[in-house]
Amino acid sequence: MKIMNYPRNSRNTIKRVPKRGHYDRETIFAILDAGFLAHVGIEVDGQPFVIPTAYGRDGDTIYLHGATTSRLIQQGQSGIRMCITVTHLDGIVLARSAFHHSMNYRSAVLFGTASLVPDEKKEAALLIISEQILKGRWAESRLPNAKELKATSVLAFQIEEASAKIRTGGPADEPEDYALPIWAGVLPIQQGYGEPVPDDVLTAGIPVPESVKRVKVKGEG
Amino acid sequence: MKIMNYPRNSRNTIKRVPKRGHYDRETIFAILDAGFLAHVGIEVDGQPFVIPTAYGRDGDTIYLHGATTSRLIQQGQSGIRMCITVTHLDGIVLARSAFHHSMNYRSAVLFGTASLVPDEKKEAALLIISEQILKGRWAESRLPNAKELKATSVLAFQIEEASAKIRTGGPADEPEDYALPIWAGVLPIQQGYGEPVPDDVLTAGIPVPESVKRVKVKGEG
User: Fold this and answer.
1) Does residue A115 lie within any of the structural domains?
2) Which of A17, A149, B52, B94, by CA, is between 20 and 30 Å from B4?
3) Domain span at residue A123?
4) Which of B16, B47, B50 faces A50 most closely, judged by CB atoms?
5) Measured between beta carbons, which residues in chain A are less than 8 angstroms from residue B94?
6) pLDDT tens string B183-206
7) How confident is the model at residue A221 (pLDDT cuts 50, 70, 90)?
8) CB contact under 8 A, A212 and B97
9) Are A140 and B207 an interchain contact pair (Cβ–Cβ within 8 Å)?
10) Is residue A3 part of a domain?
11) Cβ neighbours of residue A64 under 8 Å, at least 6 residues apart?
């Protein structure tokens, strides 16, 4: 179902291997919702900056938070053009030829501008970021007080244009190379959670919370 | 040992939590050498682009490759300012308070410009990228022919300024929050390799190569 496509233009159209390009919200949102770390691009005084930061998505809005004094918050609220990229690396594709080596990946590239979330909506936006990182954790935590909310700013970035690029599957070699005695295939790359590590000074008897129990820990099968 | 620092200025100095900032090559190179996926920032016609791509490091040079016609190759060789960011996410830090939640991570942010690698040095640069992705694979592969080399371009990005930012360890809560009955600690995030998946049409009897055997597969203990 390819519904609700983002508009296409020279900025967001995938030119290299066009079949890997996607412009529909369903595909792009699935990539965004599978992660919580974005790389955000802004330009300041002729120098691009690429800043790794957590995010939360609500519809076409991406929320980014930070200290009120941080570069991203200061610059982003001025309405400058931004680019937000989220990438999941799924594997190294080993072809018989060096040339046809590749990666399996899912990436989403978003273009737009941001504005500062007003004070009365800040806590709701922070909740969205928190839920994206670890669902249910917000409700387990001591919620922010007025001073803490004041120290934090949130940007609301509106997705104006976007594209996704996805590669899956095995290698594609030149016809004459298939006869070579060279191993070919995919070396999968997996990201997951390790066993939770309690704080050194955790009060005895406090169990691992539901938010943590809900995520799959590696090796649990 | 804090030797060979990159110069510091307003662009690369870590202002938020300065103790997490590092400017020495040893620390920055260790972060770069632990990965092979970078997010590269360039600005074109007033719009920043953040492009995920593989890289290889040789000293202060970062090699990036791509189709000769790609935006990154085309723009990068013109000498525009670039930013290359490499991020490793190590864990979600769960504090008792929502405000003190954090991430454990290692990131390196590099500023500089790039130039096109001349034809006679292209294969050596591609080898460096290949070795960064999977050591030893290049020597196992059918090497690039003249046509393949021509279709690929390589940028040599020179690190002019750089910084690393690292957070490790458990949560740091407000003194009065330690008495709360809320679990706190770190949920580690781990990236690793899955079992290699042979190409569907792999000739029978070709064993998994040394390059793949050398990397640790998850669950092997």
Assistant:
1) yes
2) B52
3) 18-213
4) B50
5) 134, 137, 209, 211-212
6) 999 999 999 999 999 999 999 999
7) very low
8) no
9) no
10) no
11) A38, A40, A53, A54, A55, A72, A73, A76, A84, A114, A129, A154, A155, A157
Is pLDDT of B221 > 50? no
Q: Do the Cβ atoms of A97 and B141 come within 8 Å?
A: yes
Amino acid at residue number B171: P
Give exposure, B159-178, as e/b (b: 16+ Cβ within 10 Å). bbbbbbbbbeebbebeeebe
Phi, psi of A91 (to 5 degrees): 175, 160
Chain B environment of A199 (Cβ under 8 Å): 170-171, 184-186
How many Å apart are CA A153 and CA B56, to the nearest integer?
A: 36
Cross-chain residue pair B198–A209, CB shorter than 8 Å: no
State which H helix or E strand residue B93 sits in: strand B82-94
Q: What is the mean pLDDT of residues A6-26?
A: 89
Quick one: closest CA in B to A40, which residue? B50
Shortest CA gap B4–chain A (Å)? 23
Domain with residue B150: its CATH number is 2.30.110.10
Indicate whether B39 pLDDT > 70: yes
Across the A:B interface, residue pairs with CB atoms under 8 Å apart total 277
Partner-chain contact B46 A178, CB within 8 Å: no
Task: Give how far Cα B34 sits from Cα of B30, B31, B38, B86, B186, Å.
Answer: 6, 5, 11, 9, 21
Of B46, B130, B219, the CB nearest to A98: B130
CA A214 vs CA A26, A32, A217, B50, B133: distances in Å: 25, 20, 9, 32, 33
Predicted TM-score (pTM) of the model is: 0.95
Domain count, chain A: 1
What does the alpha-carbon distance between residue A122 and residue A127 come to, in Å, rounded to a whole number? 9
Residues in A touching B54 (Cβ below 8 Å): 103
Q: How far is A134 from chain B (nearest CA, A)?
A: 8
Q: Do residues A153 and A78 touch, judged by C-beta distance below 8 A?
A: no
Q: In whole angstroms, what is the distance from residue B181 CA to residue A204 CA?
A: 10
Q: Which residue in chain A is spatially nearest to B84 when comparing CA positions?
A: A50
- Is position A70 within any domain? yes
Give yes or no for residue B99 having a pLDDT over 60.
yes
For chain B, percent of residues with pLDDT exceeding 90:
87
Whether the Cβ atoms of residue B42 and residue B51 lie closer than 8 Å to each other: yes
Within a domain: A151: yes
Token pair recorded at residue A136: 């249910």
